[in-house]
Amino acid sequence: MEKYKYDESNGLWYELQGDYYLPCLKLPEEKRQPIGIWVRRHHEYLRRNKRITLSSLRISGKLNSYLAAIDRQAEKMFERLVMQMAVTEDVTEQLKATDQMAWVGRMNSIRNQAIEIVNSEIIFI
Question: Which of 6, 64, 85, 118 places its Cα 20 to 30 Å from the Cα of 15?
């Protein structure tokens, strides 16, 4: 018996496994994209809470592009929030030059607030 067989009726190749021919199926190739902290958090959230969605994205071959889009969206939102909050709370370069510890404390507070907002609106939904 042949190891591989092509079926013209459905356009699939079959491979002999024991006594049975099984279809040779491959997931579509997807371009690898760099991942950041936002993607890791969202992927972990999907893995724990939305397994069906995660499986669906994997099977369709769209997981990497989906996660890359989430990463870009979260990063833009985070940067925008930090800049807006810094302006609102009057955290300026002048404060940085005169009182570095106060500037660091206020910027850390702003960054933590922005992280919580991004997590609640994009990452953990």
Answer: 64
DSSP string, 44-66: HHHHHH-HHHHHHHHHHT-HHHH
Whether 32 shows a pLDDT value over 80: the answer reads no
Q: Which residues contact 102 (CB under 8 A, 6 or more apart)?
A: 95
Strand partners, 5: 14
Query: Is-contact 56 93, C-beta < 8 A?
Result: no
pLDDT, tens digit (0-9, with 9 covering 90-100), for 84-110: 999 999 999 999 999 999 999 999 999
Please list the alpha-helical segments (H only) found in the chain.
37-49, 51-60, 63-88, 93-98, 100-118
